[in-house]
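Notebook, student rotation project (T.W.).
Task set for the rotation: take a protein with a known small-molecule partner, predict the structure of the complex, and write up what can be learned from the model alone. Partner molecule chosen: adenosine-5'-diphosphate. Sequence and SMILES entered below by T.W., checked by me.
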Amino acid sequence: MANSTYVVAIDQGTTSTRCILFDHAGRLVSVAQREHRQFFPRPGWVEHDATEIWRNVERVVPQAVNQARASTDQIAAIGIANQRETSVLWERRTGRPISNAITWQDTRTAGLVEQLSADGGSDRFRDRCGLPLMTYFSGPRIRWMLDRDPVLREQAEAGEVLFGTMETWLIWNMTGGPEGGLHVTDVTNASRTMLMDIHGLDWDQELLDAFGVPRAMLPEIRSNVEVFTSTTSVLPGVPIGAALGDQQAALFGQTCFSPGEAKCTYGTGAFLLLNTGPDLVNSSHGLLTTVGYKVGDRDPIYALEGSIAVTGSLVQWLRDRLGLISSAPEIETLALEVEDNGGCYIVPAFSGLFAPHWRSEARGLIIGLTSYITKGHLARAILEATAWQTREVVDAMNADSGLALKGLKVDGGMTSDHLLMQTVADVLDVPVERPMVSETVSLGAAYAAGLAVGFWPELRGLRRHWHRAARWLPEMEPVRREREYGNWQRAVERTYDWLQHEDDPGT
Amino acid sequence: MPGTVQSIERAAAVLRLLAQSARPLGVVEIANALSLPKGTAHGIIRTLHSVGFVAQDSRSGRYRIGSGLLRLHEPPLDHNELRACAMNWTDTLAARTGEAVRIGVLTAPLELTVVHHVFRPDDSVQVMEVGRVLPAHACALGKAVLAYHPDSPALLRDAALEPFTPRTVTSGRSLLGQLSTVRERGWAADVEEFTGGEAGIAVPIRDHGGAVVGAVGLAGAPQTVCDGGRNPRPRLAVHVMETARAITGELAIRRE
Ligand SMILES: Nc1ncnc2c1ncn2[C@@H]1O[C@H](COP(=O)(O)OP(=O)(O)O)[C@@H](O)[C@H]1O
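Predicted structure of the complex:
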């Protein structure tokens, strides 16, 4: 490794795929990025084309490497981080996906989830997998796809049709595809399927039976930090040193290595993860228990997670669906045209509500409309929705851990929004800090891969690279904060029980 | 009422012709279509080319509508978008140089507003400066923008500028002299001209069409930003220039 100068990170995100090169000091050297299409075939359905995503990887990796004027032998390892729970099935022989990938925001499994919960409640598998029964996770998605086609089920049982989340799909393609591609996943991604035993970290036969998922179609579960194998395409010969779910990668990138350390990543959705160390903490306030990371043969580190489905995607909705802005950052300009929200609140329950409510039947609303409201107020309400959803998750975290969060480390695309970060500090009433690298998902994937091949000697030393790039201090009057929070909570209650029948549009 | 200017009418006709043509046109074709002498048509086309309203196909030598004309309609760059595009690269600049980094845009004739601020990476207590207004004549960021602003000569020629420290440049004429140095070497500097104990180096940020939309710069103690002779270190300026270039690249991608 002595001559290697860079680690390559691939961040296969919900809106785009990025490739970033980092140097030995953990500094970003080059970036290439490509958005992929979002398909909304029906209300509540959200799909991606897995083949398009693979092509984007094939394009952005060489682009980023060329931008840095690097050669393959200067690259120590590749680390992969990915949007979690997004599921694809493909034919082992041809490498062709059976259909579009079904993304984590997709709610088509609502009926199935309801059926499964009827017998034992939505927490019936929580002890085993750490998760409540929700449309969010992959397991029900696999079942939904297999239920539609008996032939497909036969092929899955024969191992001719394979399942994967995005890291599995990419690694399989990077290591030969139909010609012997490696079919593997990692503990963090597997911990989001509802099919893995969260204690033993392997597929759980009872869960597989309950969901009707044949083991033959599932990848092998690996650690996050280990040499998987070397690639045969994209960067031939370079070892793949890590795979992690994007949120766990961000936890790693923020160097939250000790119990009690937390971060929140603001992208399409927002995800607050708290390191709970080797202990598995069960939440009684609507948070998820998940694997934080596992380094080689060491014991796994667990995390509590507060998942918010819709944050950046609400900004995208304003841009692409309503056409009120032409780029995401313009929302800040629009919001600054007015002083406050004018009494307007937006609860973006597009995929139901995630943490801490977990209400699949909720749907979004805009409330408090009067003829006074302008598009500037809507922009404010959109940014505030992200801040208040964070507040709800932080309250749950504080209640579960018995400790009060003293500050929040943030990262992700939305942290470039100055007004939003100030608003988050205001509603949480704690300082908000952004690290010097806001592409923390990629940085975490790079750190993990670099550790696997000895590019960095050990975990703790990585902390030296963390520096504060920005800090926002709370400025809001306490009285106003409480009043606004009350309004927000009343708005949230009004989204409940909106869907009443399985066949409602919007299911 | 004064009469119309014939050459402008003709230039308009040339543009209309090129805009409506499905393929690039040669000088003779243009001259024939508009019944103009070839020399006149050529003069008009060269002039329109020099201002970016007409572009020349490098292989065939024929002409089509230039991107400068299309950009007349484009709204000015949103400051928040500038920050979003710049963020990765300004982080890297701060990490490489160990200094604080800012981006500023001109918001009034001699006023520069900070639209992005990355703390000095030493984890000391620092205050977020986004939204702060700085006197453009007394800081590197301001000078980097003023150096390329079309109004600067008229605005500064006879101006007396406000002093902030004994080192502030207060004569508009001397400042104009400095601005021409900025244009020659591509970067601007200030050494304790606004705040004692602080020196800065800045470079203009250009959009994909070459227009200056703001400036990016670093600032820190004169001991680290300058050499022994209190001159800003050119090595640091190279890093800032690379950053400005990377931001320009990002702006181009975003506008695609
Ligand atoms: N300045 C901004 N203000 C608000 N939202 C923004 C801003 N810039 C980007 N976003 C939002 O952030 C998201 C992109 O962030 P990113 O971290 O790339 O997400 P992901 O990894 O989920 O694809 C988009 O949903 C976009 O709408």
